Amino acid sequence: MRELREVARDAIALNESLTKPLNFDLPRDFPKSQLIDICRSLAQLPDGTAEGSRAALEYARNRLPAIRRVHVLSEELDTSWGDLPPPVLRGALIDQRLTSLIASVTTALDEYRRLAAEEPADESQPEAAVPPFGEVTDGAVARSAQLEAKLSEAKATVEATTNPSSRRAETLKREINDAVGLNRLARVELQMQKIFVNLYRRIVHALKDYPQLINDTATNLKLGADIAQMGYERWEEFKRNSTTHLFEEFKKTCDMLIVVGARLEQRRAKNNEDRMRAEGRIKIPVFPPAREEVRWIKPGAGRSSSEVFWDLEGGPEMVVVPAGKFMMGSPDDERLTSEGPQHEVTFALPFAVGRHAVTRGQFAAFIKATSHKMDAGWRNPGFRQGDSHPVVCVSWDDAKAYASWLAEVAGRPYRLLTEAEWEYAARAGTATAFWWGSSITPTLANYDGNYVYDGNYVYEGGGRKGKFRQGTVPVGSFEPNPWGLYNVHGNVWEWCEDTWHDNYKGAPIDGSAWHPKRASQRGKQSSDRVVRGGAWSNVPSVLRAAQRSWKSTANRIDYLGFRPARTLTP
Fold this sequence. Notes:
- This protein is of the alpha+beta class.
- 42% of the residues lie in helices and 10% in strands.
- It has three domains: 122 residues, no CATH class; 153 residues, Four Helix Bundle (Hemerythrin (Met), subunit A); 252 residues, Alpha-Beta Complex (paralog of FGE (formylglycine-generating enzyme)), CATH 3.90.1580.10.
């Protein structure tokens, strides 16, 4: 198979780079010997069977990128490591050859998967029994090394006692090559303390029938009379003395590796969880439950792209807002009537909020996937927009429909923000009119720059005139607030879950949505919902964190958008 020969070629090249004298020191924790063992195993793939080769390729495809991620760093990163040797730099010879090997392994594995997809599926084999476990990692490594020596002896015996042109003998040698290579990869994992448990299950399934296979092969060789009598006797002697024990030993080793791997995986997962919690991170399941993964996210660190998650490809990017408390509303020298009385709100749990307002491209995906009816305004609001702009001309009902759809396809509890959540997330631990301070200019947010924040209301914050963009700008424009939220001041008003109330008298203090409790209160108010943040068309004072307004749930206006939220369960 041409792809296997390319893997072997790249493995030999990397092995040469690792084994020849280097003109620099590798980091102390660089897994040089383990990487050499992987290269040696991959170099002999052309001499193995298809099943054994695929198992080795599956292993290498998982392990090699992980080694590169941990031990190969970009030259742009800080390489001042004191007395320690520097990391392997991206683009250096070792990295070039490691990258080539990863590419050829991926190509070969894809070809095997393509061929497998064209064949009828085999019935699944039962799991191998797992023996009682002890702390046997060091012992397993030693037994694996002994096993490799025995396998080499078996291969040498077959070569010495069989006709070189025998197809049966060639098949047997290939199967022994598989055992050598897979056993070596198993030992690499033990030494690196990073076990891929499923690999060992595959090894057990691949090799569990080898004792019988060797017996059958030996019988066939005898019947075919294509070895000399002396050679056959030598083979029979080897089989009696070594073969059964050899493969029983190998199966025991594989069973042991499965258990060692499971224990190490549990231990590593527990240590990782303890470390993450000590760093103040929380565990968040992401993606739909059928392909769920776990991310550890630090609340309030959303300015870093590594602290952002999403549940749907192309869907909203989410950041985590920490639990805590804040004073909701404006102070006396800034306040409008609807912004008081100021009151403390406590959030017992963190929650997730959209890094950006929902974009036109994301909303288009919702429209395409559903039968939700819209007029043409959201596609043609009267100013130029692209898919990276916030969607506008969406009503509260439209925003709710999008959140319900997102919750259904992602399998996660998406919704609109409550008004208290919106202000808490927008302020991000600050108490000034805007998260960056008390003044504003058009270089900081998108609003009508013909006006200055100098007394349109009671408070005079300062600032200067600037550009009036007369429409939205792409999400991600300007700087994010300390928790990683973009454009919380200006660009578009954002719908909230709450019904409108004229002031905060009787408002919830737990961050929940505020709805009328009595039927007598549910008149006109029930069709009016809160909007927050101000828009591209507003004067600067309207963009304050405390500013409140309302619109009817049916309104579709060219400055109305929304930002999603997701409830996080402990």
